[in-house]
Fold this protein.
Amino acid sequence: MRTVYNLNYKWAFTKQATEIPAALPMDWNWVNLPHSWNAIDGQDGGNDYYRGTCYYARDIKKYDLPVADKYFLELNGANSSADVYLNGQHLAHHDGGYSTWRVDVTKHLKEENLLVITVDNAANDRVYPQVADFTFYGGLYRNVNLICVSASHFDLEYYGGPGIQVTPVMEGNDAKVAVQVYTKHQKQDQMIRYTLMNAEGKAIASHTTPGRKVIFHIKNAHRWHGRKDPYLYSVKAELIAGEEVLDTVTTRFGCRSFLIDPNKGFILNGEEYPLRGVSRHQDRWGFGNALLPEHHIEDMDYICEVGCTTIRLAHYQHDQFFYDLCDERGLVIWAEIPYISNHMPTGRENTVSQMKELIIQNYNHPSIVVWGLSNEISMKGDRDPDLLENHRILNDLCHEMDKTRLTTMAVVSPCPIDSPYVRIPDTVSYNHYFGWYGGDTAMNGPWFDKFHAQYPNEPIGISEYGCEALDWHTSDPQQGDYTEEYQAFYHEELIKQIHERPYLWATHVWNMFDFGADARAEGGENGQNHKGLMTFDRKYKKDSFYAYKAWLNPEPMVHLCGKRYVDRVEDVTKVTVYSNQPAVELLANGVSLGVQAHNGLPFFYFEVPNVGETKLVAVAGDLKDESVIRKVDTFNEAYRLKEKSAVLNWFDIEMPEGYLSLNSKFSEIMATIPGKLLITSIFGKMMAQAKSLGGNGGAGMDASAMSGMMDMLGGFTFLRLAGMIGTMGVNFTKEELLDINAKLNKIKAPEKK
């Protein structure tokens, strides 16, 4: 019988080793798995987290292991390349940090063994990802096991798969369920017993045959229907010799049909089922990506609290534990590989192997409906023949391996909608940040209307949208100010536009949680992307969290916004309430400021007199929420953005009236001919510097892509933008910034329209 022996405990770890040790090094650090060596330095900013080869070692005594014919080492996540050594002998190499892979160690096991695994997250030109706005945490950050099996067993070596594949197809109300297993060294007299079970674990059908494929028919199948009814069947396959069970595999599956309609959006089991949700990265504060089961469960609980029906699991294969949670909770999933940002001609083989692993390891999950080919891969342009061919290969591979699902990809905002690259997958979504990186919030809906009008038969969705917010506050929220109030405004506006466009096949907020991006230096807390609806440590739900909860979750709720924004200078202040109830009343020190009726969207806006200290109470039916505001004469500077380790702050900058400065928006600078020439010169030098440092920069970016990127960044001041370009390997000194400011001070600002 199969036994899984966990190897998570008591590993010796070091960054300093240069060769495989002959004995267990007692002077290395002791760690338990899951483990990442970038759990701290990958989240604190500076783009200086350790990227290189680290060593893990532990001893294995064979007499501690179950008796078996075969032993397979299983690694569920080693980022990003790894090598396995047993007793000094090299057994395997693997490229790709987010999938399961296994190594047959049977012939090399002795009574006393030293297992060494080297893991390398250093930059290279063949393994994705290499350029992206998140930290590439190194480590053995998921479980490591020994799987002990008989000589005849279900295959453990085929791209890390489970050895069993279930394909349910709905035929009216009935389901035809094809079960395929993969065996190794199955003998002629050995049989396979297949047992079909309902959600309660009760056997409802069985077959015993030497064949590796059977068909079950389920009359009036209980459908897997998303959040409403995530019903799961299961199939157990047993490899038997006479009465002896040699090996067993079990998998769950769901009976469901779906359609992505270019006009009606996502349709599940014949019903319109709007996919409205979030994207998720797998890391958290203090852990990196070395998450424990309770972390995954907590994340799922918060996502369900928001009321999401879908998750985009970005930008790589996630833990099987989380895919299982998605099946159980009924979330509809976009799963993708880390083919992201920078196309590498030498990386094609890795995109193919990572896609094969993603599909084979996750085929049985009913929650997954689309395979994502890439993310923002056309940042340097969308016409590269090798990039196009790579996508066609991946698209064909997905359809060859899985006849039941569709393909998709996330397209960077500036990419033209008539691009041949956009036509490759079955459906497509765009990453748009109008209202944050450029333009304004009102541009989002019309852009999608234009796409829909020009390509009415192609499903279109939003794969990313969002803006950053920390504990900064204002009564006059502005694009790029990092306040909680602007983020709330941004998402209110986006919700309004999405609500009016049912043709959007799926929409995914970027992001559910703040996440590690060590190259970032912005917002006053370096090393993170702060677009989350919740903070990185999961301790605080931003107001925008409740905007979605009021819109998507039918459970009665009311939320008063701005609880962290107490001191206010204005005589009359705006207060926002979110609720999904029919009406909301706001009381100020017990005095009613009126009752507002729900008008189809869960946002209620009140003008509140600001005198002394005011206790606010929002009432919606039997529900209440409270907050306090206080009148002050001078703006509380604790609410204003302060950069952490900033080279230059906004108040250090000369800003002559009527002229440009570092505090001018990028779009304003680009609107003037001298400003555009200056920016072009600066960017040219930046790209050269980034390339010389081994970074990506904009090297190779075609003219249209560069123009689109500059347009997208238009909403940020030059100073803010200067703090965001660490991913390019470029950092401005204070002197350089002051020199640029002096040049800008000589250029007349464009007249305000």
In short: The first strand starts at residue 3 and ends at 6. The chain has five domains: 3-149, 164-253, 258-555, 572-638, 646-744. The longest helix spans residues 673-692.
